[in-house]
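Hey team,

Filing this mostly as a record. A colleague (T.K.) asked me to run one chain through the structure pipeline before their review meeting, and I want the input and output archived in the tracker in case anyone asks later how it was produced. No errors, nothing strange. Just documentation.

Input sequence:
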Amino acid sequence: MIAVIVRTGFRALRRDRGAFLLSFILPIAFFSIFAMVFAGMGSSTTPRVSVLVVDEDRTAVSERLVRGLRREPSLAASTRPETKKGQPVPPDYTAATAETAVKQGVAPPALIIPQGFGANPVAFGPGTDRQPIRILHDSSDPVAAQVVAGLLQKVVMTSLPDAMAGEGMKYFEQASGGLTPRQRQDMELNLSKFHDQMQKRDQEGNTPAADGGNNAGGLAAVDVRDVVGEKKRSPMISFYAAGIGVMFLLFTASASAGSLLSEAECGALDRILSARVGMTTLLAGKMTYCTLLAFLQLTLMFLWGAAVFHLELFTHLPGFLVMTAATSFAVASFGMLLATVSRTRGQQAAISTLLILTMSAIGGSMLPRFLMPEAMKKAGLFTFNAWAIDGYTKVFWRDEPVSHLAPQVAVLIGSGMVLFLIARRFARRWEYS
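Output structure:
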């Protein structure tokens, strides 16, 4: 009898596509997503980090350091903005333009090589006469500045070994009580030859790589300064409110729009359509309800964040209202599409759970997108979550004006309209049934 019960259970599972998806497909999907995010963290490679580089020193030493930074495989170093098609090549970043770019989210850190760096680039101890390299940091990405600071030490070691040798000679002379004129002459001659060899190797593009760790013990002085979020009382609250809020809005919109399927199953939908209510009007009314419900839910969540977690809601009210309206419209259209595509309420619940959890994982609702590989970041742009989180980040984190929300609002509203039109087409089956 036990065997019969087991066979009956597996037959029922095979017939129930929703249960089958949730039992097998969803765990595999989640495992794949998180494996892609965290697979490289135990390896010897470092996730590639975008960094803006400004050379204020303009010496041979600083130029070699810039070339080394651009060759470092763990960094995506750029000295100027990307050249747009049909536009002239933009000028190199300055300290001011790089700071502005960091505030706008172009890259999480910017690295500024100051004037005077080439005169004394490295030291094996706490040298007070060194000009520190400045790292301007967006603290919404707490990993980037630490990675760049560590890799900087590695690049200094691999790009400026002659400077390290010269500094080592100074320490040796101090420890040994001084060199004879002959010894000093030989040392300077060898250092000069070594310097020429390094310049030749650097021009040929054969900069040696370091063997292992990415911190050379503070060879270059570094000064890290937050330029975004340093005065925020609760800097990450808006991120989590947006990420978690959008995920649950998708569930709510899906459940609310699913009333269409319940009405179709019990025959109420036929009576509504026979009462001279067109399908377009019916869908528009239900979508309006879902949009208003989502708007109220997200507003309540942010009000709670303002009251309990000191979220600066009322100083960012215009941007919040614009983003919340666009996000609510988009998730409502997504719910309508799921309701019209699905054949039964059970099928709709299974499909929505699979899609919403997957979208939330890829789109940044469950973990920040800066931890993800580049391919997953691009995949996240196909989700509402990523665009909504980016918009709320502009409002609450970067204090940008409402006009800067145009890309996010356009994508959310545009995709919402497209999904509604697709849902209207799938709903034709109820008109002819």
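Quick notes for T.K.: The chain has two domains: 49-228, 234-431. Residues 57 and 411 are 42 Å apart (CA to CA).
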